[in-house]
Write the structure tokens for this entry.
Amino acid sequence: MISVTKIVNTFFENTKQIYFGIGIALLIIITFMIMPIDLYKPYLVTIKLIIVIGLAYLLYKNTIETQEFVSKLKTSLNEKQNEPIKNTIFLSYILSLVIFILLIYVFYGIFY
């Protein structure tokens, strides 16, 4: 049986890439959508599509990692000492919701 600490450390290592990707996506969104840059319209649409694809990948990856994390810890989540782990799972699902909202915002920005 794998220890809870090892499972948590593996989850944190697997999600580092997701948080780095979110930072890059936010930087690109700020640069090309919020700040007014005069670029040829097809270039802007292409950049926005790249952002949508990147955010969709990040949403998928975060959801899968969280579900795997929950499935590995299902038996030990009922214990009182695991409140921080429950909070981590809850915040990870909140992050997925925020990525989804950002994805809708960028997708909406392509057409308007």
